[in-house]
Amino acid sequence: MTDINKNSTKALADKYIFQTYGRFPVVLTKGKGCRVWDEEGREYIDFVGGIAVCALGHSSPLITRVLDEQSRILVHVSNLYYTRPQAELARLLVENSFADRVFFCNSGAEANEAAIKIARRYSNEKYDNKRNNIISMKGSFHGRTMATLSATGQEKVKTGYNPLVQGFKFVPFNDLSSLEKAVDETVCAVMLEPIQCEGGIICPDEGYLKGVRDICDKNGLVLIFDEVQTGMGRTGRLFAYEHFGIKPDVMTLAKALGNGFPIGAMLATEDLSSAFTKGAHATTFGGTPLATAVAKAVTESIINDGLIDNSRDMGDYFKGRLGELKEKYSVIRQIRGMGLVIGLEMEIEGTPIVNACIEKGFLVNCVQEKVIRLVPPLIIGRKEIDLFIDAFNDILRTI
Model's pTM, two decimal places? Predict the structure, then answer.
């Protein structure tokens, strides 16, 4: 092996980085809008978007400007002090959601940790430590920390990590009867994703989420919505819960909130927030001036620059074009999703399809072995969608 090969990006990564990711053999070096380029200069249209993160696209001029301006003023001081970007982002999120207060952190897993903690602390205080179990959904995904993987309804993420955090029950998604039967005097909360994204883009049946809300109300349970992937305009509304005529008590955000700059948030009603008194929960890096300045700009852009409408319109257009392919090719089993979170369930294993898309200059993702997940930047247009449909048609024709 030559020195050049020994020092290639792939060789260095394979030698020095933990091998926890099944990476594709592509070294990405730059991006702009909905496109990225590899080290050989080859262009790809990105339908992964950093896994539903880059809502404004790659190398957004807005993000570049805010990062530059804020980094020249104040980057980090800790939460021992007030900072204006944090307060303004909190106000923006509260004024555009059901919530009354926000706790800032660094990731979706941390946001879900905070949600688990506040639900238990609130219920333990209210019910004299008799309610602390949380019902989660089979097929769910809530993170990789010990508590959030314990709350996740997929065994593959739990392998080897026993003993898990106790206090979680699991019922099938879209099954109100099973949920109602699982509720007893030990349960304090129900935790779910409005759409199971890592679980294969599984959408709720009509009336399901309202039924969950009713069960929680009837039994005095906290309803937690994990909107780490579905939030921030992804479904054609700012938050997915808005589609269903209900409100959760707690909601978690991350991913697109910072457009790639790490930030998470846990939002809650005033009643729930009372459980987090001084010292009850904390973080060193959560809600830094730099992170919240970026997230505020991202949130304002999603709300004010037509990205929510574009997500809805392009999502409808995309599913329509995919429907044309489904009519032609029986290998497509089902098309699911809302807005620009779309799942294409195939009759065959999805990895070869992902590889074929890469060869044609398109980045897509596969979840649950047979579901092609399409979560492009919210700025995607018909031109990029049509180019993908043409390439995908060519791929399906050869299967």
Answer: 0.96
